[in-house]
Every structure is written in structure tokens, then in C-alpha cells.
Amino acid sequence: MMQNDLSVFNEYESEVRSYVRGFPTVFHQAKGYKLWDLDGKEYVDFFSGAGALNYGHNDENMKQKLLTYIQEDGVTHSLDMATKAKGEFIDAFQNIILKPRNMDYKIMFPGPTGANSVESALKLARKVTGRTNVVSFTNGFHGMTIGALSVTGNKFKRNGAGMPLSNTSTLPYDQFLKESNNSIEYIENFLDNGGSGLDKPAAFIVETVQGEGGLNAASSEWLRSIEKICRERDIKLILDDVQAGVGRTGTFFSFEPAGIKPDFVCLSKSIGGNGSPLAITLVAPEYDKFAPGEHNGTFRGNNFAFVTGTEALNYWKDDRLEKNVQEKSERITSFLDDMIKKHPEMKGVRKGRGFMQGIMSPIEDLADNIAGRCFEHGLIMETAGAEDEVFKLFPPITIDDEGLERGLSILQQAIEEVTAESNLVAK
Amino acid sequence: MMQNDLSVFNEYESEVRSYVRGFPTVFHQAKGYKLWDLDGKEYVDFFSGAGALNYGHNDENMKQKLLTYIQEDGVTHSLDMATKAKGEFIDAFQNIILKPRNMDYKIMFPGPTGANSVESALKLARKVTGRTNVVSFTNGFHGMTIGALSVTGNKFKRNGAGMPLSNTSTLPYDQFLKESNNSIEYIENFLDNGGSGLDKPAAFIVETVQGEGGLNAASSEWLRSIEKICRERDIKLILDDVQAGVGRTGTFFSFEPAGIKPDFVCLSKSIGGNGSPLAITLVAPEYDKFAPGEHNGTFRGNNFAFVTGTEALNYWKDDRLEKNVQEKSERITSFLDDMIKKHPEMKGVRKGRGFMQGIMSPIEDLADNIAGRCFEHGLIMETAGAEDEVFKLFPPITIDDEGLERGLSILQQAIEEVTAESNLVAK
Amino acid sequence: MMQNDLSVFNEYESEVRSYVRGFPTVFHQAKGYKLWDLDGKEYVDFFSGAGALNYGHNDENMKQKLLTYIQEDGVTHSLDMATKAKGEFIDAFQNIILKPRNMDYKIMFPGPTGANSVESALKLARKVTGRTNVVSFTNGFHGMTIGALSVTGNKFKRNGAGMPLSNTSTLPYDQFLKESNNSIEYIENFLDNGGSGLDKPAAFIVETVQGEGGLNAASSEWLRSIEKICRERDIKLILDDVQAGVGRTGTFFSFEPAGIKPDFVCLSKSIGGNGSPLAITLVAPEYDKFAPGEHNGTFRGNNFAFVTGTEALNYWKDDRLEKNVQEKSERITSFLDDMIKKHPEMKGVRKGRGFMQGIMSPIEDLADNIAGRCFEHGLIMETAGAEDEVFKLFPPITIDDEGLERGLSILQQAIEEVTAESNLVAK
Amino acid sequence: MMQNDLSVFNEYESEVRSYVRGFPTVFHQAKGYKLWDLDGKEYVDFFSGAGALNYGHNDENMKQKLLTYIQEDGVTHSLDMATKAKGEFIDAFQNIILKPRNMDYKIMFPGPTGANSVESALKLARKVTGRTNVVSFTNGFHGMTIGALSVTGNKFKRNGAGMPLSNTSTLPYDQFLKESNNSIEYIENFLDNGGSGLDKPAAFIVETVQGEGGLNAASSEWLRSIEKICRERDIKLILDDVQAGVGRTGTFFSFEPAGIKPDFVCLSKSIGGNGSPLAITLVAPEYDKFAPGEHNGTFRGNNFAFVTGTEALNYWKDDRLEKNVQEKSERITSFLDDMIKKHPEMKGVRKGRGFMQGIMSPIEDLADNIAGRCFEHGLIMETAGAEDEVFKLFPPITIDDEGLERGLSILQQAIEEVTAESNLVAK
Fold it and tell me: Which residues are reported to carry the modification N6-(pyridoxal phosphate)lysine (chains A, B, C, D)?
């Protein structure tokens, strides 16, 4: 396949295919924040594989480690047997990530996807409590398998199940309720009122920033209140850090600024370093209660991802990457504020934090149109929210100033063009 | 990590870890049917990553293709955007696999695991029929996420869900009923009797050989009857070929000898060629009814697996591999029959077909003890069945005579030792 | 309303009305085995309110007791407060029924219907075991509320729920499996096989004779095997004696001949004596674990039914009624055998036992046509089975020879007419 | 049983018994608003069988009609066959209740309890919409069978199910949310936000005044908003008028002042006139879609209740009863306001409307203690709310001034005594 031709996809791939519709070209090569299609056209990547490519494409150090590993016939696939590559990953994760943060968790390899991690945490929280209900939050997004989909708020996605999704209750996320600044009182009321119909949950599952749900960022105070609510009622706290974790918000775990200690932490996406499938579930030792093999899966031992994932952890040995993200986050924030001010016709609201920010607009199709215009001009960027009402800046966290400015510049141009041309109609 | 030391796993990994307990060593390198641990000890692999390594470890052609791809900074991770590597995989699958078999299916990339494929098929079958119940079979095994676990028969695994698993009904697999040769009459009776309590199912989900469930092989006649039952009642047929597919039974799809046409086919494990996470769901075009993005997932676009998976398909351009499997299957069969005859104290029954055969024994711990002894003597082999009552020969389908005989010889020694030493007690 | 006119029903009552369609007349008075409509036409009642009128209509002793009670302004409605009428009922039930049979049960008043009794037993069995699954049997019928409907086999009724019915599994009733004489081996296999997908049940719920399900009568041996299966596995046994109990099969409890001791017994229908709404749940003392008020209901204290129900228990102070039923059952049996022999074109099979016998015929509409013809000739009789394939003789158990013969004679005439006229076609 | 002795209840009745614990005496006779126990002690009844005795005990007209009916051997039990008594009930209900209110409903007889009516409406709403989710409200109470319990908010009761209750979502009732005057905005937000996780419901089920849930009275405006929400989204509206209906709030249907037109109305409790088990479901003709027999039940045809229920409808031929209730409601309101003012230590809040009013107090056990003291002084009154935090005045709606004042006077005395003696501690 040497031609930039989508016909093989159009003809043979299922209708469910999605991103290829928004980015209709055949990509071939990628490095850092850049992608090239088969025509050689270069794209700036403000999408980062929906958070799976936080370190950019084909990081050179990871690449070299992986090439050596493959060259030497290192074990590729190992289920949950012990391998040198896996041992080194565990060791690095323990010593670079957990210990310096005074975190004490058992590491579970639940299968290679974020949904696997979510499913394992849900199962374990139910098992250790003997309760079946799990509280999730409005606009939460946790995956497409039935267990994970049951705690996902998006109705279009839920509808794909073809059957009722049960054993879950949705409560309002931070700022979902319009009349108050937070939803804590409402949540406590539902939990404690003996007539609320909310069966005592095994766990809460929560994201610190809802990446798919529209870049809703919970405040640290809200997160601490949620933790307190759980602690006081013996409810387990599952922190789904699949999209917001691994540095995207400026710290390795997105919940570090809030200072909370979840009982379960779900990690995936960028944990493998280069976008290779890998997920882990961190489990507080007292809840590490699955019997051997009670949860399993074929691809728990993806050694390529162990190799690149281990190399990636080196980014966290000092605070340079953290600082880079935090500094550039401010640049993104000020850029977005500026756009909102310059284009009041967008009726834009800035959303999110760190390297997961964007603008929500009530204008019909605006976010989609801007993302589409960006693509034409060589910038990959996606939308988020139940109605795709947010455009979402997700650059690699390793991006340099040049890359960031190049992307922002294209985005600015797209905003200007779309707002100028469109007959803007609020939804 | 240069020492063969399990302490990092024992200390930091979750108790749910399983295979590392049966094979307590740190593996490092692997090639074809061989594995080496950090002490340099060589093992023959009759396990094949539970079916994910049908082509053996680090096949040289795949390895070279992959090295080149990585060297050239080919796209690693792409969600469901179009990439050259993905396009070539689709093209090869279409032209090498589907077209020559006169099969007309849309290819869905549901996420990288077999469970993802199963979940996508279950969701779609329910969606297109508007029915919620799905019939699965005794000892069926389809995965650990809630949707897939709901159709899995193993009670120990089901118990891990921590909640009731619903919208499924289990019916007896071929030869599960003792008094009759097949279960077809029973199934028809339950479906058609207006008082059986079996709500009309959206689909049947079935394996041709139950790999995890104890190497139960359905007859072609039974499979055709199941297809007929479905057709006559407008019930969709989901064929889970995750473990038995990709050549393990001697044909690419395990259901080819039966001549049936499932509505959905689940493939994973060896579809990526070298054990890299990849899964596809084949969907009859008339049921390709997910809206764009209605089912999604981060790791649908694992390009390393596309590269190696495409290369692997070359094995199917002629019939050499098929013939190799079919011939060596006969050797395995006669070896197992021989063992059963020589060691009547095992009360062994040969199970399975092709390169997924083994011996079921009612003797307490016998299968486990034999597998343990094999490991000591340098052969990796696992057990199967709800009570681990079967030891299971799963050599790579590319194995040569020397490898096969070496493995069988170790197995023979293990059987002889265990049966000689043990105080055999039937369960 | 003095005219025999159905227009008020046709115009204002819901389409769900059913018996009025088969017996299209307006009834007014009734005594013993006789009913009269507004035209004064007399009918013999071989229907007995589907088992709620085992003692016939308006038994004179009950009537007098009730008239006095009402005349004296006895408490009519009392929830679960103590009343004289309730105390006397409990006392009589204890002394006339339980003690002489060496039965030790707590009496629960779960609401006035059989479904209330079933729901209370299901809830309690789940609560005391901490398990959610309940095993029911093919063609079992337990009621229309969601809990009771979940354990009912009839698909037409289940479909009325408008949602999936969960937490139940159906296993084959005695003689449902065609190839064997009983289903015990199959049931044990499903329970004990670790891969059967049958989650360990809280309870089995079973009828001794399936009145709605087609007059399937379980053998005493089968019932004892079911009890043994439950005992050996710590599964609770719920005996639904709503239709077969209170003397219909010749003993007060239908399970007396089998000699089993259920953990929960559901009674309703004729327990109130004259067809007034009343139900009780007998609970083995060790499982009497509902907290006060954890299950409740407005009509638990129907004192009219306590009064008539207490009077009805006097029938059980000696064995005259039992003997009457047992003797007349033989007459019914021989009559039905004779009909089957004389009319082989019915392809009839005799079903049931005691005063719940009938003939199953595979001939399209035969049972319905015979019941319809009986109605024309002055006999009320209904059909049963998922396809209404059985006509069902349900005379009052207090019927005398004259009444029985009169009914049988009408039935014989109907059979002769229908078999003579019809173009009989097997389904 | 001639002695006022509870031993038969204590010894033989299940522990689940409840009211007998609060009112520990054996009642025997009753008339109007009076009850007598076996010692001849007289009690004023401010309980009215939890709403089943709205017309008081043994109303003389109903009694005479019933005596005549029984004397003449009228049909007692008739399933859903046509009887004279049933026809007259339908006719009266149509002509006295529905027609004058311009209401067009089919009448369904779903079984004799409120829960039967609720279950039938839930099933039918799901069936006609093809959706499974039903929205209920905080502190709603609809019954103890699994379908009805699933829409009941009380956690203690829900826990009795022993299994997860699914296919329902709870939303905040009027004034449940503290920060705003009504919950309408919140509800609309949950329904319309594509990410709220609230699957589109088949129906809302709502009470106008939550009798068991703590006498929460929805405003007419709130009810109209709920109706509007349903209409605009094609959601069915089920009005559970089991407790608040049949005159308890001053109009026959409690929703008359709000002017709404529910799709389904559930009636029971006092619909039978004298506390005999009877329930009806009113179904908008376009949703009368059960097939004949798709929902059934043994005690749908309780003719005694038809006779007394028909007689009771005569109370609604003119507006005297309505006026009586409305006038005396004002007396109750002013009495309660006065008590709250005189006894600020109760921290009382008046709740409810019409003849279902009471006082909520946060003081630990206050409501229970007052009800207990009332009983000692000869007044029957119960508590309500998830924590029994409300005492609840439920006199017969036919009560005269003397009876009302006598009851209020006892209540006043009890309040004075309890507040004087108690060491009042807020919960």
C-alpha cells in the first residue's frame, strides 16, 4: 500500500470506524509531535492518541531500547509469567513512581486496556465489599466493555450495549449542578437519606478531569470531599487515571495536587510509553484479594510495552518534564482565554487543566468545524463532550515551544476562519 | 534485572498473578518453540501463550519486518485512523483469508483483546435483534470483562465479578449431557417449549473447541445443528475463534471443516502474529450496524501487530502450514492414545483436536502434577478445565519434528514419573 | 345490572381480561359446585377458581361464621395488627395442620396473593444465603409480579415484563428431558460442574404438580431427590403449594406423600376457605430472618378470610375429606383413561394427579374446543400448558358423586362432539 | 380466643410482624373511627389501615349490602370472569368517578394489592415503549414485590430483596434538593444531558403525597412540570394514587387539583370501601396493550370488595364528603401549626396535605414516642419516613367533629407528656 487511498478502509472495515472519518488520510510515519501521511504531508499532533502518546511518537530512547530487545529475541508475549522486561518495569515503577510518592500499592496487570483496568477495579471493589452497586459520575467515561460501559455516562455509547446496564448509579460531578458550586451536599444527601433509593455502593469511580466527557476538571477540594465521603462510609474509591494520568495534567498522577489516596488507581494509555497496549491497576494492599487467576487475560504480558514503558519512566526521575508541562499549560490557558475574548461569538468557556484543556461552545457544530479546519491546515485535534461541544488540545507533554506554537497558530487560524464564515447558531 | 530472582514479583505484583506460580522462573529470550530463562535454562514451549503464539516466538520474518518498521519511525499507535500498516493488514486479510474462502465479512477492530472482540459481538447482536438474552454453553470461556464473563461458564471466574451476571443462559455443549450423544434435542426443546423460561436469545456464542473449558471439541455435525437452530429461529451465531482459530486446529478458522457461516467471528491471540495485542471481529455485512464510534477503544490501532500480523498471513498463502498441523496432529493423537493405554491408572480420556489436544484425568491433581514435572524437565505446558483436570498440549503450529518429539519425550517422562510416584486417588 | 349483558366489560375493562372471553356470561350466584348466570342458567364448576375454591362456592358453615362476624362489626382490615380472627386462624393452623404433621414453621402473612408468598420466600431465601440466583423449573408458574414472574417459565407471560428477568436459572422439571426418566442427573451435573455457568443458587422453587404449566406431576422420588440435592449443597427449598396445596391432590400439603421438608412453603388460593384473598408463607424457624417490617403490605390482615379460613380448617380435623378426594381421584383417572382409549384420535395423554388431572392433546385447539363446548353444555373447565394443550379437571374437592358424574358426563359429551366434528390436525 | 393475649402471635407468627409491636393488643371490633380490643378498651383510629379504611370501619351501608350479597350466595371469587357485582362496580366507577371528571381510561384489575397495580403499570409502560428504565423519586414507596420494590426509595425495604434491584433510576422529589425550591431543573438536566448516564425511561412513577416516605407533598406546579417533562419526551407518567387517592387529600384523585392527566393511575387500599383487598389500574386507552391474559392473578375478582367498593362510590355522587375533608383538613393544619409553635423543642415541621398530615421532628425517637404514648391513651397513629421521623395523622375521611377533636386531644396530651419528660436529642 503505497498510495494515500482510503478505499480499503471504506470497503472492508466496519462502519463503526470513527477517527478515520475526521482525519481522512493514510498516515505512515511519526516522530515526536509530528505525523506524516502517505503523501508526505506533515501534521502537528494535538491529539496524542487520545492520551496514549503523551511522550510523543517514537521517542528515540524508547525506540532504541525496543530495537535492541527485539534484535536479541527478548520474550514478546508472556501472559503473567515472569520476564526480565516485566521485572524491570515493576522495579522501575516501584522505585521511580510509587516510593518517592510514599504510595503503597500492589500492581495488577489486568489486560492491556484502560477498560481492563476499570473492569478489574470494579470487580475487586465489589468482591471485597460484598456490595454490587457502584457510583459513577455524570459525563464519566471508563470504557466500552459492559462493566466499564455501565459506569460511563455517555448515552450514545450506553445505547450500544443493546441491553440494560445495571448495578450502577450516576451522581453529579463537580459543577454539574448549576445552582451550587459543588455537588457534595447533594451526594451526601443521596447516600445518607434512608429513602433515596441509592443502594450503598461498593465504590465510587471518578476521573479528576473528564477527558472524553468534555474536559470537566474537578477541583482539589471536590476530590478531597469525595475521598472523605468514601472514607466515612467505608466506600472504596477508584480513581480512573487512564486519560488524565501519566503526566497529562502536569504530575504523574493527576490526583497528586489533591493529595488523596484512592483505593484503586487505573492506568493505561501512556503507561506503555510509545502507545503500545498496556494497563495496570494499583490496588491498596488490603484489597488485593483476587485469588490467583480469578481475573486473567491473554495480553497482560506485552513485553514490548514493558520495555518502552520502563524507559518512559526515566522522564520522572527528575522534575524537568513536570515543569515543562506546568509551564506550557499556562501558555495554553492564556492562549485559550485570549481566543475566547477575541471571539465572543463562540460563547466559549475554557475547560480542563494542564495538557488537557479546550474550549466548550454552545454553537452548533462549532467544535467539529474548528477541528475539521485544523486538520486541513495540518493540525490533528479532536472534540469531546456528549455533544462534541468541546475542542480539545492534547499535545504531547514532551512538546517543545516550537511545536506548541505551531499548533496554536494553526488553531488560531482555524478559529478565525470558522467564526468568520459560519452562520453561528446556538444549540 | 540480571538475576533469576522472583522477589520483585512476589513483593510488588498482585496476588492475582497466576502462571508465574506454575512456571516459577524469569524468562528472557525466546525463539520458535524455545524459551530461555535468566539462568540460561532452555524450555520447550507446549503452551504457546495460551494460543497467542501459534507461530512460535519471534518468527524471523515478522521480526525483520517489525525492526524495519520501527527503524523507519512507522506510526506505532493510531486508534482507528488509517495507517499504511493497517491498510496492508486489512488488504492481506481480505485477499489471503476471506476471499479464497468465499467469506464476506466487514472487519471491526474492537480493541486489542479477545474479550474486546466478544464484547463487541455481544453488543452488536443484541443491538441488531433488540433482544437481550444470549445463549452460551457449558464450559465456554470468553473473557474476563463483565460482558464476556457473563457468557463464561467457569464458576470460579464468574465469582470474581462480585455481582450477578445477567442476560445470559447456559445450554449444554456437545457431549455435556451424559445420556445422549449430543445436546441438540435438549437445546431445541428449551428454545421451542413455551414454558421453558428461556427468553428468545439475540445470539448463541460458541467455540468449536473449548480451550480453557477442558479441550471439549464439538463435532462438525453438532456445529451444523447449532447453525441450523439459529438460522431457523433468527438467532445470530457468534463463533468465538479466539483460541481455536488462526490455525490451531489445522485450518485458519476452526469452523472450516464444519462448513458453517457464523454471523460474527471473534479473532485475537495469534492474529497479531508474534503475540502482540490485536483482535478483530468479523461481522456479516447485514449486521454491521454500529454507528461511527458507538463502540471504540484506545488500542484498536496497534500498528506493530498490524505489521507482524500481515507478515503472518503469508503462512496461509499455500497449504504447507495446514498440512504440517494436520500431520503432526495425528502424531500427537497417537502419542496421547499410547500414553492412555500404557498408563490406565490415569483413567485418561483424550480430548480436543488438532494442536489443542490433551488428556483428562479424574485423578486428583494428576494434570497439575504432570505439568509441574514437565516444567522441571524443561517443558512448558498448562492445564485446562474447571477443575484443572486436563493437561493440554499447545505447541506452536510451526513446530518441526525435532521440537515436537523433544516435547513429547519430556511429557512421557513426566507421565511415567508422576504415575509411578503418586498415590493416585480419583476425585 | 340485572341483564346478562357483557357490554360494560367489553367497553370499559382492559383488553387483558381473559376468562370472561372463554366463559362469556355474567355470573351472579354460586353454591358448592354450582354457578348461575344472570339468565339463571346453571353451570357445574370444574374450574374452582383455578384452585381458590377447593371447598366449593359459599360453603354454608363458612358463610354463617362470616355473616355473624360482619353482623357484629368484627374488624375487617387490620394490616398485621393482632385481631381475634387472626389469632384464631393462627391457632387453628398450628393445631389442626402443623402439629399433627410434626411440622415446625413460623407463619408469615406476606400479602394476600400467591405471588406475595412467592416473593416473600424468594427475598428471604436470598437474604439468608447472601446469594442472588434462584433455580426454577421448566413450566413452573409462580405469579405475575416481577420477582415471581422471573421464576415463571411461560414465555408469553415473561414477555409481559417488558424487561429482562434476571437472577434466575431454569432447570428441567421431572420428565421434561425426553431421553431419561428423570432430570436429576442433569441437575446435579449443572450444579456441580465448575464450568456450567450456573451460579450457586440461594434456593430451588418447585411445585409438586404444575397446575398452570400443563398438569405435570413430579414423582415422589424426584421430589425427594430435589430435596436431597438442596440439602447436600446448602440450597434452600421453596415449595410453591399455592395451587396444588390445601387438599387439591388429596392431602393438605401436596408434598406429604413425598415426605419432604421444604424450608419455605407458599400457600394461598384456597387457604382463605371461600376464595377470599389470603396467603401465608411457612418459614423454617432458622430462616425467619426478616427484620420487623422489612417486608410488609396493606392487605396482610384480611379478617374475612381469617374467619372463613379458620372454619375451612375444620375439614382437616379428620380424614373424611382426604378420603373423598383420594377416592374420587380414582374415578377421574379411570374416566380420563377411558376417554383416551375411546378417542385415540385425541392422541391424549393423562396428566396430573388427585383433583388436578386432565388430558394433554397435541391436536391443534382441541383442548380449547372441548372446554368451549363444555361451557355451552353448562360445565366450566379451563385449559393449561404453555400452548393450552391440556384440558384440566379442577372440581371442588368437596364435590359429591352426583356433581362429579354430572360434570364428567358433560365433558364426555363435549369430547365426543368435538372429536366427531373436528378436522383434527396435530400441531 | 377470648383473652387479650398476644402469645399465639409471639410464638407462631414470623418475626417480620410489625404493627402488632407498636399496637400490642388484640383488636376485635370496629365501627367508624373506633376500634375495640378484647378487653373492651376503645381506641380512636387516626391510622385508617394506612389508607385502606378511608371510609372508617364497617360503614353501615356497605355492611348491609355485603350481608345481603353473602346471604344470597352471590359469587365470592371469580378471577376475571364477569359477575353482576363486578359489572356494577365498573359501571359505578365509570359513571360516578371517570365521566364527571372527563377521564377516559380502561380499567384493569391487576390483582388485589397496590403493588399489583404498580407492577402492572410498570410492565405495561415498559412494554409499550420498548424501554426498560423507569424513573422513581426519592422517598417514593410503591410496594414490596420486586418490581414495585425496585421503584421504592426506602433502603431498609430495598435491602430485604436480597439482590440488586435494577432497571430503575431515582431522581429528587419536590423539595428534596435543599438549595432550590424545586428539582425540575435538575431532572431536566439529567434527562437531556447526553452524558448523564440516565437511560431514557419508559416512565416516571410518582406520588402526589408520599405517604410512607414522610408525608412529602408535591406542589401542583411541580406535578405539572413533571407531566410536561414526560409529555415533551414521550415518557409515560404513572401516578401511584394508592395511598393518597380515594379522597384522602380531599378529592377522589389526589392529582385533581394539579390538573394533570397521567397515562396510568394506580388505585387500591380504600377502593374496596371497607378495607377488602382490591386494586385497579387505570390505563389510557392507547396504552391498553396487554394481550388477553398476559398479566393475570387469582384474586382479581374479589366480589365482596366489588359490592362494598360500589357502595362506597356513592359518597362521591355529591360534594359533601369532599367538603368535609377539606374543612377538617384546615382544622388539622391549624392544630399541627399550633403544636409546633407551642413546642418549639420538637423542632417540628408540618408535612403533607389534606387528611395525610403530620409533623416531622429531627429529635431522636420523638415521633415513635408520641405515637406510643397515643396508643396508651387510646389513639392509633403511625409514623412515617425513612427514619420514622414523622408522626402521621390519618383519620377516616368520614370522621365527624367529635371524633376528630377526641383524637387531636389525645395527641395533644401525648405531645405535652413526651416533650416534658424526654431528654430531647436531635439526630
Answer: 269
